[in-house]
Amino acid sequence: MEPFKTLTALAAPLDRTNVDTDQIIPKQFLKRIERTGYGDFLFFDWRRTASGDPDPGFSLNDPRYKGAQILIAGKNFACGSSREHAAWALSDYGFRVVIAPTFADIFFSNAGKNGIVLARLTEKEVATLLQNAKDIPNYKLTVSLEDQTVTDDRGFKATFEVDPFRKFCLIEGLDDIGLTLRHAAELDKYETEHDHAGWLKAK
């Protein structure tokens, strides 16, 4: 998992509330066995028309937001089912930060385990950012996990809360496997001693 400290990047608006995980990554794409490649199907039903062509009315199809790494969304983002694929799709598409007033609890955990920073700001602050992202060409935000702030170059500044343990993992780039491997030496020692004890007992 790539460490996260501070990111300055293009911000894309998704001015919708109650975006559920089936909208983030539709269920027909959950049959894949890999954890990569889901970015192609992110918001698939919104990105495509009935004929399969890109929908020009959907914000992420707007060339102005190509390469955005920060997504700004409405409240209750990623509600619905607990599928971790939602976090995989957002990450694979290129988003490293999602800003919203509220997030579903299970998604909040899944996102952190996949290197995505979730910044909960007030509805007023999010409304300001959504409008700026729509109106200002090449609108960029700076998200500092170390300082727990979201800022732009126009005077906007907001702070967000983050669990200290999750913050540590994100800054260090540690997922669940990475956390376990930090104790590899102790685990190897235990296994060696356990195997030796078993061998002596067998004798």
* Low-pLDDT ranges: none
Q: Helix fraction?
A: 25-40%
**What order do the SSEs take from the amino end to the carboxyl end, as H and E?**
EHHEHEHEHEEEHHH
Which CATH class of the largest domain? Alpha Beta
- Largest sheet: number of strands, sense, barrel closure: 7 strands, mixed
Backbone CA Rg? 20 Å
Share of residues in strands: 15-25%
Quote the distance from N terminus to C terminus. 45 Å
Q: Strand arrangement, largest sheet?
A: 4-3-2-1-5-6-7
Average pLDDT metric:
90
Rough shape?
globular
Question: Helix tally?
Answer: 8
CATH fold topology of the largest domain? Aconitase, domain 4
Q: Describe it for me?
A:
The chain has 203 residues and is an alpha/beta fold. Helices cover 36% and strands 16% of the residues. The protein has a 7-stranded mixed sheet with strand order 4-3-2-1-5-6-7, with helices on both faces. It is globular. The N and C termini lie far apart (45 Å).
